[in-house]
Amino acid sequence: MKIGTDIVEVKRFKKHIVNKNFLNKVFTEKEQEHIFLFKNEQKIAERMAGKFAAKEAISKAFGTGISDDIVLNEIEILPDEKGAPKVKIYGKTKKFFEKLKEKNIEISISNTTNYAQSSCIIF
Ligand SMILES: CC(C)(COP(=O)(O)OP(=O)(O)OC[C@H]1O[C@@H](n2cnc3c(N)ncnc32)[C@H](O)[C@@H]1OP(=O)(O)O)[C@@H](O)C(=O)NCCC(=O)NCCS
What we know:
Elements: E1 2-9, H1 11-14, H2 20-26, H3 29-35, H4 41-62, E2 75-79, E3 85-89, H5 91-99, E4 105-111, E5 115-122
Antiparallel strand pairs: 1-5, 2-3, 4-5
The protein binds coenzyme A (COA).
């Protein structure tokens, strides 16, 4: 089992809401759909920050940080039917994970107006 955690400032994401390059680099298409279900700038930035914190928490649980092996938009965080965040990974990020002995990824995300935090365990 390994653990990772991250905290980010929500305001950092506000300036990126209309930056399609940033959005595509960091979030999958489905994540962008989920983020923009909100129409309110603050709520959009909070959801962006939460997903970003989760991706960094996952990269720390992997032991790599965001690196050549771990690509932000190859990690997809979407809610299940109860609203709990679930992780799917793709591409070379998935290949990297498959080399680890851990087989499962679980995350939790939380935010206030100013900060979003996420924890990840892989086991
Ligand atoms: C580790 C990483 C994920 C995050 O670092 P960060 O957000 O700048 O800094 P944080 O304060 O959240 O984390 C720093 C801590 O992470 C931990 N850490 C560093 N490398 C790590 C690794 N390979 N595995 C696990 N944890 C690691 C350390 O405890 C570090 O604290 P220290 O510097 O006092 O030793 C790093 O890969 C990174 O810089 N990511 C940023 C990528 C990014 O912003 N991309 C922009 C895309 S548009």
